[in-house]
Design goal:
Elements lengths: L1 H7 L6 H37 L2 H24 L10 H38 L1
Helix pairs in contact: 2-3, 2-4, 3-4
Length: 126
C-alpha cells in the first residue's frame, strides 16, 4: 500500500497527453523560430535603409528571398494533391496562386515589421 501512495504523488508523465503536448510544443517552436527569422530579415532591411550600405541591402534582399523560399517549402510540403482529372494548367495555376499567397504573406509581414521598427526609431528620437 505504501508503494501505491508514493506513485500517486509527484509529477507523472501522462502518455495520453504527451502526443498533444508535443504538437503544441512543435507549433510554438515553429512560430517563435518564424518570428525570429522575420525580425532578423526585417532588421536587415531597416539597417540597410538607415545606413545606405549597398552590401547590407543586397544581404537583406538575399535573406528575404531565403525567407520566401522557406515559407514556400511549406506550401509544397503540405502535400496538396490535385485530382488526376484536372488539366495540368489548372494544377500549375493553383500552385502559382499558392506561391503568390505565400509571397504576399511574407511581404506583408516584412512591411509591417519595417513600419513598426521605423515608428520605434522615430519615437526614440523625439
Amino acid at each position: 500500500m505504501a508503494n501505491r501512495e508514493k506513485a500517486r504523488w509527484g509529477f507523472v508523465l501522462d502518455p495520453h497527453y504527451e502526443a498533444g503536448n508535443a504538437i503544441i510544443r512543435d507549433g510554438a517552436k515553429w512560430f517563435l523560430d518564424f518570428l525570429r527569422n522575420i525580425l532578423i530579415v526585417g532588421g536587415l532591411f531597416v539597417l540597410a535603409e538607415k545606413s545606405g550600405n549597398r552590401y547590407l541591402e543586397i544581404l537583406s534582399w538575399v535573406a528575404g528571398g531565403v525567407l520566401f523560399i522557406y515559407l514556400s517549402s511549406y506550401w509544397t510540403a503540405l502535400g496538396f494533391r490535385f485530382p488526376r482529372s484536372l488539366p495540368i494548367w489548372v494544377k500549375l495555376l493553383l500552385t502559382a496562386l499558392g506561391i503568390v499567397i505565400v509571397g504576399a504573406i511574407t511581404l506583408i509581414a516584412l512591411n509591417g515589421l519595417h513600419t513598426a521598427i521605423n515608428e520605434i526609431v522615430r519615437a526614440q528620437r523625439s
